[in-house]
Design brief:
- This protein has 493 residues and is α+β, with helices and mostly antiparallel strands.
- Helices cover 25% and strands 32% of the residues.
- The chain is globular, with a radius of gyration of 33 Å.
């Protein structure tokens, strides 16, 4: 028995050796993987931004603007009877006052960067807005006067031009769409008028929208202060992927929340300013609003996506057959997620291009061909109203008291004689209608995606929606001429 145990122990020695070898191999592989990952991470993380700063600095400029500010005589004026002995005295006094209120010069500072050797320079519109004189200071110390080629207040971008006897160093644009959150970036500019300065950080977020229709900001924690406006935001390859534009700060100084307009937007604007001296954005010619969950349910849509058409004035869409109540789901082959996406898609499309627009209308999909106009030339045109059939009666439903239009209501609301619809005269404060923003004075022009002429039309539309099993009921209202769709709950008594 004892000999058998010894033999068994000896027999298992090779197995133990193999197990140890496997464990060592796994440990070595794990260490190799960690080492390779660390090396790769260090390869992406620059040890220094010195080479990058040295290569791009000659293309970054300081911008000084001068503006004439007229003197304002806002003081009290003495009232002196004509022919009074004091008239000359007070006139001399006022003349001396005006001498101290002569027009004065106001200056401002900003940043910019050269994009071509022949002297085109990009900056922010607010840096040079209303300036009488614009002076460019280069990294070398050379100073040149600049002229404005074109501006775009909507994206806060301006294009300047200087004349130089020698080719100027310039920087190329990069692909901002390829930039990722966490990538290293470097901002260069003239913060607080202190001269050329460099700061570095990472991309904190992408596709930020602040207030404009065409906003596509890159958010960064690289230090950006006053005077950095108009300066470039570089990737580690030395390409401009953004134009530093704004900061979010309670103090006015950098707290690590800066915004740069993406190069994807900037390059398109600059191309148009270079070619035309102005922007030329596509215009679809509709008023739109987002599709909310209750609006989607009222329309029978599978998801709350797309752009809901609230109004179709005279223009490209009306000629193509679009109607209020259509939900635009696809524009020129691209899916439309919301109104902001549609505005950007249309604005980035060439004026005069015929595009296919897919809409959902009364549960069915339709494709329309729309030839885009130019947004800058578009005029606000009122939608023609239907013929009014007067009915002075009132009715209560869905938490509202509504009445047909009459001459008195038209006068109170400032409506045209041929305007049709129903007027909201009261809204119960605990109703869904009140919660959705309906107020006395609103004009209901459509119900259930059909125009209404009298109270019976509205009651019929509500009853039809209930019979169809709808939980929400869609109405098109106008307030001060502006249209908006509102979906009210049908489950409320």
């Amino acid at each position: 028995m004892k000999e058998s145990a010894v033999t068994a122990q000896i027999m298992t020695q090779p197995d133990r050796s193999r197990s140890i070898l496997r464990a060592i191999s796994a440990l070595v592989l794990g260490l190799a993987f960690m080492l390779a990952h660390t090396i790769a991470a260090q390869a992406k993380m620059p040890e220094s931004f010195a080479d990058l700063a040295e290569s791009v600095s000659p293309s970054v400029v300081n911008i000084t603007t001068s503006t004439t500010v007229a003197g304002v005589d806002s003081g009290p004026r003495p009232i002196v009877p004509e022919g009074s002995p004091l008239e000359d005295f007070f006139q001399d006094f006022l003349d001396r006052q005006r001498e101290g209120q002569r027009p004065r010069r106001s200056s401002a500072l900003g940043s910019g960067f050269v994009i071509s050797e022949d002297g085109f320079i990009v900056t922010n519109n607010h840096v040079i807005d209303k300036a009488d004189e614009i002076e460019i200071e280069f990294f070398s110390g050379e100073r040149l006067d600049a002229t404005v080629i074109g501006t775009d207040p909507k994206t806060d971008i301006a294009l300047l031009k200087v004349e130089s006897d020698t080719p100027l160093p310039f920087v190329p644009f990069g692909d901002s769409d390829a930039a990722r959150v966490g990538d290293w970036v470097m901002a260069v500019g003239n913060p607080l008028g202190q001269g050329f300065s460099v700061s570095a950080g990472i991309i904190s977020a992408r596709e930020r929208a602040l207030s404009g229709s065409y906003d596509d900001f890159i958010q960064t924690d690289a230090a950006i202060n006053r005077g950095n406006s108009g300066g470039p935001l570089f990737n580690v390859e030395g390409e401009v992927i953004g134009v530093n534009t704004a900061i979010l700060s309670p103090t006015g100084g950098s707290i690590g929340i800066g915004f740069a307009m993406s190069s994807e937007v900037v390059t398109r604007v600059i191309d148009q300013l270079q070619e035309f001296g102005e922007t030329r954005r596509g215009w679809l010619g509709v008023r739109i609003q987002d599709v909310t969950d209750d609006v989607a349910e009222a329309l029978g849509l599978a998801a709350a996506a797309g752009a809901l058409v609230t109004d179709v004035p005279e223009g490209p869409s009306k000629e193509a057959g679009l109607e209020a109540g259509d939900v635009i789901t696809t524009f020129d082959g691209k899916d439309v997620t919301d109104t902001r996406e549609l505005v950007r898609l249309v604005g980035n499309t060439t004026v005069g291009k015929a595009v296919r627009v897919i809409v959902v209308r009364e549960g069915e999909t339709e494709t329309l061909l729309v030839t885009l106009g130019r947004r800058e030339e578009a005029e606000n045109t009122a939608v023609p109203a239907a013929v009014q059939q007067s009915d002075p009666a009132e009715t209560e439903l869905l938490g509202m008291t509504v009445a047909a239009l009459n001459d008195e209501l038209r006068e109170q609301l400032g409506l045209d004689e041929d305007q049709s619809g129903l007027v909201v005269v009261n809204v119960e404060e605990d109703s869904d209608a009140y919660g959705k923003g309906l107020r006395a004075g609103d004009l209901i022009v459509e119900a259930g995606q059909q125009k209404i002429e009298d109270l019976s039309d509205l009651e019929s539309r509500v009853e039809d929606a209930r019979e169809a099993g709808r939980k929400s009921f869609l109405m098109l209202i106008r307030r001060d001429g502006d249209p908006r769709f509102v979906a009210l709950s049908l489950e409320e008594e």
